[in-house]
Amino acid sequence: MKKYDVYGIGAALVDTEIEVEDEFLQSSGIGKGLMTLVDEPRQHELMDILRGHLIASKKASGGSAANSIIATSYFGGNAFYSCKVANDDNGHFYLDDLRNAGVDSNFHSEKEEGITGKCLVMITPDAERTMNTFLGISETLCPKELNLDALKQSKYLYFEGYLVTSPTGRQAAIKATEYAKQHGVKTAISLSDPGMVEFFRDGLAEMIGEGVDLLFCNEDEALGWAQTNDLDTAVEKIKSIANTFAITLGARGAIVWDGSQLTNIDPCKVKAIDTNGAGDMFAGAFLYAISQGHDFPTAGKLASLAAATVVSSFGPRLAADKHKEILETVLS
Fold it and tell me: What is the pLDDT of residue 58?
């Protein structure tokens, strides 16, 4: 028996969401729909310009893998998250938020001085999310942040592709993957963002190594990885690096490959307000389902409904009780 269903690794970011017009992104030279790394002065500059547009939303711990791991926990799974926060107010808040979500972490390790990472999430009227991220101390996440005992006691290792932007973060992912394979822990990765695939493809390939057990990506990331405009070609290409995978297709649903069968997952029709966190929620719900023994079509159905629910309101996460409603809808 494993203690944890999923062990996650990723950045620790405190998010701020702001509604903007497309014109603002264009005039500010911000690539729409992408995650862009910025320094702290640039983030402050944007925050000052947009000060009057802040959405009244609850402050919460963020980061792609963290959102997925918290979703897994809220669905009822046992989860552990390795990250790096500074000895500042945001760092203490972040760890408290993980604890309150039922996620274990290195709560008692000594915190370094510095600045905990922050992410500015800009939402346009078409519900698309665009992120400017100041990694702060997360940029120095390294193998020493790993808890190998917790990893060995997990069913799945899950890490975000965003780690590829940090040389030490990339090494943490590689070490964790090697250790997981040595101890019978299945490996999973999210490609995270089209920009990661376009600009850091070699680094992602290094993290993937000889292949992972499960890969998550959206259609743009799949096409970018395969360097094609044809989804069928991309599917075949991804089979060469992942034993199984899930490709989200936005309003068209998703496709999942369980190693022998490709299944189309129907979309759940909703009015999209904020697509921030859709892929994270899909991965978190999917990981929960397969770690509990459900098949890929069932996991895809749960993940599709969960992702549709999260895009129908602001913020990358759902209230804890909402997860129970989704579970009852799909599994009852």
Answer: 61
134/119 Cα distance (integer angstroms): 6
> Between vectors from CA 5 to CA 181 and to CA 152, what angle results, nearest 5°?
40
Q: What is the CATH number of the domain that holds 178?
A: 3.40.1190.20
Write out the residue range of the structural domain in which residue 323 sits: 4-10+64-107+140-331
Q: How many domains does the chain have?
A: 1
CB-based contacts of 36: which residues, under 8 Å, 6+ apart?
30, 130, 131, 132, 133, 195
pTM for the model stands at 0.92
Going by pLDDT thresholds of 50, 70 and 90, the confidence category of residue 54 is: low
> Following DSSP, what letter does each residue of 283-314 receive, concatenated?
HHHHHHHHHTT--HHHHHHHHHHHHHHHHTSS
Strand order in the sheet with 262-265: 103-105, 79-82, 4-9, 154-160, 186-190, 212-218, 242-248, 254-257, 262-265
